[in-house]
Design goal:
Layout lengths: L6 H12 L8 H9 L4 E4 L8 H9 L3 E5 L3 H14 L6 E4 L5 H12 L5 E4 L1 H4 L2 H8 L3 E6 L19 H8 L4 E5 L4 H10 L6 E4 L7 E7 L3 H11 L4 E6 L2 H13 L4 E4 L5 H12 L5 E5 L11 E6 L6 H8 L9 E7 L1 H11 L4 H19 L4 H8 L14 H4 L4 E3 L1 H13 L6 H9 L4 H6 L15 H13 L3 E4 L5 E4 L1 H8 L5 E3 L23 H18 L3 H4 L2 H10 L4 H4 L7 H7 L1 H14 L17 H11 L4 H7 L4 H13 L7 H7 L2 H13 L5 H7 L6 H15 L2
Parallel strand pairs: 1-6, 1-7, 2-4, 2-5, 3-4, 5-6, 8-13, 9-11, 9-12, 10-11, 12-13
Antiparallel strand pairs: 14-17, 15-16
Length: about 725
C-alpha cells in the first residue's frame, strides 16, 4: 500500500495537523518510509517524538491504523493528545478492558464509519476473537507497536501476549508494521524483528543521548528527608518519584502531603478513575509531584517534568533509562536522582524466585547491569550509551552526571586489567563477573571448588584486593571495550579484539576508584544540610541533660527521650516545641512533658556556635496521620480485645504489639489496662513496672533474664507499653 507524498506536502501536513514547522531528528525519513508501505523499526529515546512517527501517517493514509500499546493510561493520554490537535473526538479511540459495552459499541461505530484514523488497542484485547473478526472487516492502513521491547524475552518488560502479535496481525490484514521502542540493546532489537518477521525492515536508530538530563546516584541514607528537601528547593516545578511497591508509593505521597507538598499517588492498586484523576491533576499542574510505581509510570507523559527521583533503584538499565527519560522532554533541564542500596537489589532478586529458570537468569543479568551502573565511577552517560551499543566520550558529558561533576581519583591499572584478561582466557571465557571476582581475589566459594579453579595458576593472583575491587575492574574493562558480556549465555565474559591486543602488548589503563555504597539505610551518621557530620558535642550534652531531667522526674533516662530521638535532635536542632514534635519518636505529649529544657539548651548551643539549622525542610511524622493508626487508638479507647483488633487489621498479635510500641514511643498515650487485667495479676504488673522504673534501658532481653524467664516476652512487652504510656507520655 504505497502512498508517496512530496516533502513539501509532508511539512504542510505537519503544520496543518500538529502546528509544527519542522520535524525533529529522523522523524521525516521514518514517516516517509511508513507512507511508502515499508516495514519500519524505530529506536528513539524517550522524548524524541516517537508517537508522531505513526500519528501523522495515520492521518494521511486511507483507513485506520492499529496501534498496540501496553498500558491503559498511556492510551488515554495519547488519545487525549491527538483529539486535542483535531476538530473531532472520533479521530482517535482506544479499545481496552476499561470501556463499558456501550462505549465499545460506539468505538466500533466510529471505526466502521471511517471517522477514526487511529485505534489504540491493548495486546490482550487483540487476542479476543470478536475483535479480530471486527478488525478484519475494517480497512487497515498499518500496524504500529509502541513499547516494542515488550516482545523480546531479553527485554526488561517482556509480555508473553506481545509474542503473538505477528500471528494476530496476519489474521487481520497484510499491511506494513512500524515497531517503536525507546530502550533496546542490539540483542533485543534483533529479537523483536525476528519475532515480527520483519528482518527486512528499515531501521532508524537515533542517539540515546539525552544531553539535557543530569544523572546522579546517592547512597540510600535518610531518603525521605533528602526528597522533601530537594522538592522544597525546586518549588513550583513538576516531578515524578518512583517507588518499588504500592505501599511505599502511598507512604511517600502521604509524607509529602503532610509536609506541605502537593503530591498524589499513582499505581495499579488504585481504581481506573482514581488513576485517571491523579494523572490529569498532574498534567493540569494541580499537583506538583506524582509518586508512582515503576511499572505504572509509563502512563505519565508530561513535557516539562523537571526531575525524576527513584526512591528505589529499578530492575534494569532499560527501566531506569525509560523512567528518567520522562524528565525534560521539552528540551529543558531534567535532573535524575536515584537512591541506591544493595538491599533493594536483594528485594528484586527475591521477586525472581519461582519464575522459569531462563527468566530468572535474564532477570539476574539485568540486575547485575543496574548494580554496575549504580556503583560505577565511570561517566554515567558513557555507561548508559555503551549499554545500548553506542560509543560516547566522557568529555562530551560536560559535567551532566555526578561522576563527571565530582570525578573519583584515578590510578594506573594496567597490571590489574592484564590479570583479569589472563584469567578470562585461563577459564576459557566460560564464566560470569561474579566468578572472576572470587577467582582473582582468592575466595574459594562452592563454584570455585566444584570447577577446581582454586588449583589453577592464576587463582588468587589479585588476593591483595577484594571482590568489590575486581568487580570495578571488570566494569571498567567492559565499558572500555576490552571485554563484552555475551547475552546468549546470560552475561558470560568474552574478550574483544581490543582485549586480545592488550594481552599481546599490555599498556597503560587508568582505573577509577569506586564509590562505596556499603553504608546505607540505617546509618547512625547522617549528614546535615551543610554536609557536616552528626553533632557529637551536643549529643554528649543532651545525654547529661536527660540524666538530670530524669532524676528530677523520678524516672529512668530512657523514659524522657530515647537515644534515637536525641540523635535526631543533633541533626535537626529543634528550638521550639512545635519543631520538637518533628523529631523521631517525639509526639506532642512527650514534647510538652519533657521538652522545654531540651529546646532551651539546643537554642543556646545553636546561637553560641552559629549553627545553620536545616530549616529548608522539616519532616513531620506520619504517626498521627495514618488512618490505620487512628483506628487502632480508637479501638483501644473502645476497649476491644487486642486479639480482635489484630484480626480486624489482618495482623499477627506480634505485629500488633510492634504497632502499639511505635505509637507509645512517638509520645501517644494508650490505656491497655482493660486488657492487661484480663491476662495478668496487678501484683505481677507492678513488679515489672518497678523493674523498668529502676532499669538503665527498656531492653526486653535484659528484662527477661532479670526475671529468670518468669514472664513471657509478650507479657513484658505489654507491661512496657503501659509503663511508657504512664511515665513517658
Amino acid at each position: 500500500m504505497s502512498f508517496i507524498t512530496p516533502t513539501y506536502q509532508l511539512k504542510d501536513a505537519l503544520k496543518n495537523y500538529f502546528g509544527y514547522d519542522q520535524f525533529k531528528g529522523a522523524q521525516q525519513q521514518i514517516i516517509e518510509n511508513v507512507l511508502a508501505g515499508r516495514n519500519t523499526f524505530v529506536l528513539m529515546p524517550t522524548g524524541g517524538g516517537k508517537s508522531l512517527c505513526y500519528q501523522l501517517p495515520s492521518l494521511m493514509l486511507p483507513g485506520t491504523s492499529i496501534i498496540v500499546s501496553p498500558l491503559i493510561a498511556l492510551m488515554k493520554n495519547q488519545v487525549d493528545a491527538v483529539r486535542g490537535f483535531s476538530q473531532t473526538g472520533q479521530v482517535a479511540h482506544f479499545l481496552n478492558s476499561s470501556l463499558s459495552k456501550a462505549e465499545i459499541a460506539q468505538v466500533k461505530t466510529d471505526v466502521l464509519s471511517g471517522q477514526t484514523k487511529m485505534l489504540y488497542v491493548a495486546p490482550e484485547s487483540l487476542t479476543k476473537k470478536e475483535n479480530i473478526d471486527f478488525l478484519a472487516a475494517v480497512p487497515i492502513s498499518f500496524f504500529a507497536i509502541d513499547e516494542a521491547h515488550c516482545i523480546s524475552e531479553w527485554g526488561h518488560d517482556f509480555r508473553p501476549e506481545y509474542r503473538r502479535l505477528r500471528e494476530i496481525f496476519e489474521k487481520i490484514s497484510s499491511v506494513p508494521i512500524i515497531a517503536l521502542t525507546a530502550t533496546a540493546t542490539p540483542k533485543v532489537q534483533h529479537d523483536i524483528q525476528k519475532n515480527l518477521n520483519m528482518l527486512d525492515a528499515d531501521v532508524f536508530k537515533s542517539s540515546f543521548n539525552r544531553d539535557n538530563l543530569y544523572y546522579e546516584i546517592r547512597p540510600k541514607r535518610e531518603v525521605e528527608k533528602q526528597i522533601i528537601r530537594y522538592i522544597k528547593q525546586h518549588e513550583g516545578q513538576s516531578g515524578i518519584i518512583y517507588c518499588l511497591s504500592r505501599k511505599k508509593v502511598e507512604e511517600i505521597a502521604e509524607l509529602l502531603q503532610v509536609n506541605g507538598i502537593n503530591a498524589l499517588p499513582y499505581h495499579a492498586g488504585l481504581d481506573a478513575s482514581s488513576r485517571a484523576r491523579h494523572q490529569d491533576a498532574f498534567l493540569m499542574e494541580e499537583v506538583e509531584v506524582i509518586v508512582a510505581t515503576i511499572a505504572f509510570g509509563m502512563g505519565i507523559d508530561k513535557p516539562d517534568v523537571r526531575y525524576v527521583i527513584h526512591h528505589d533503584i529499578p530492575k534494569s538499565i532499560e527501566s531506569y533509562y525509560q523512567e528518567t527519560g520522562r524528565a525534560g522532554r521539552d528540551g529543558g533541564i531534567g535532573e535524575c536522582i536515584a537512591f541506591y542500596s544493595y538491599k533493594d537489589i536483594e528485594k528484586l532478586e527475591k521477586f525472581l524466585q519461582g519464575k522459569a529458570l531462563t527468566e530468572q537468569e535474564i532477570g539476574r543479568q539485568l540486575l547485575h547491569e543496574i548494580v554496575s551502573y549504580a556503583e560505577t565511577s565511570v561517566c554515567r552517560r558513557k555507561f548508559i550509551l555503551h549499554y545500548f551499543g553506542e560509543e560516547f566520550s566522557h568529555e562530551s558529558c560536560h559535567e551532566k552526571c555526578d561522576n563527571c561533576k565530582r570525578p573519583q581519583e584515578r590510578m594506573e591499572g594496567g597490571q590489574y586489567l592484564n590479570n583479569l584478561l589472563q584469567a578470562v582466557v585461563q577459564l576459557e571465557q566460560t564464566q560470569k563477573s561474579k566468578h572472576y571476582c572470587a577467582f582473582l581475589s582468592g575466595h574459594v566459594n562452592a563454584d570455585i571448588k566444584a570447577y577446581k579453579h582454586d588449583q589453577l595458576p592464576l587463582f588468587a593472583v589479585g588476593k591483595n584486593y577484594d571482590e568489590h575491587f575486581w568487580n570495578a575492574v571488570i566494569r571498567q574493562a567492559v565499558v572500555g571495550g576490552y571485554l563484552y558480556k555475551d547475552v546468549e549465555t546470560f552475561g558470560t565474559l568474552k574478550l574483544t579484539s581490543k582485549g586480545n591486543d592488550f594481552l599481546a602488548a599490555p599498556n597503560s589503563f587508568m582505573l577509577f576508584k569506586q564509590h562505596d555504597f556499603s553504608n546505607t539505610d540505617d546509618d547512625d551518621i547522617i549528614l546535615n544540610q551543610k554536609g557536616a557530620a552528626f553533632d557529637e558535642v551536643l549529643y554528649a550534652q543532651l545525654l547529661e541533660l536527660r540524666r538530670k531531667v530524669a532524676k528530677q522526674a523520678g524516672v529512668p533516662p530512657f523514659v524522657v527521650f530515647q537515644e534515637p530521638s536525641l540523635r535526631d535532635m543533633c541533626l535537626q536542632y529543634p528550638i521550639d516545641l512545635q519543631e520538637l514534635t518533628s523529631i523521631q519518636g517525639v509526639g506532642a505529649g512527650k514534647a510538652q512533658r519533657y521538652g522545654t529544657p531540651f529546646i532551651e539548651h539546643i537554642s543556646a548551643h545553636v546561637e553560641a556556635n552559629q549553627i545553620e539549622r536545616p530549616q529548608d525542610y522539616v519532616v513531620k511524622s506520619l504517626i498521627n496521620k495514618s488512618g490505620a493508626k487512628v483506628q487502632l487508638i480508637q479501638n483501644i479507647d473502645r476497649k476491644l480485645p487486642l486479639e480482635d483488633i489484630a484480626k480486624s487489621q489482618g495482623k499477627s498479635f506480634d505485629a500488633l504489639l510492634e504497632e502499639l510500641e511505635t505509637v507509645v514511643n512517638s509520645g501517644t498515650k494508650l490505656n491497655i489496662d482493660y486488657y492487661l487485667k484480663e491476662v495478668m495479676d496487678n501484683d505481677n504488673q507492678e513488679e515489672i513496672i518497678d523493674y523498668f522504673m529502676g532499669a538503665e534501658s527498656d531492653d526486653l532481653i535484659t528484662a527477661y533474664h532479670e526475671f529468670d524467664g518468669l514472664y513471657t516476652e509478650e507479657e513484658l512487652r505489654l507491661v512496657r507499653i503501659k509503663f511508657l504510656s504512664v511515665y513517658a507520655n
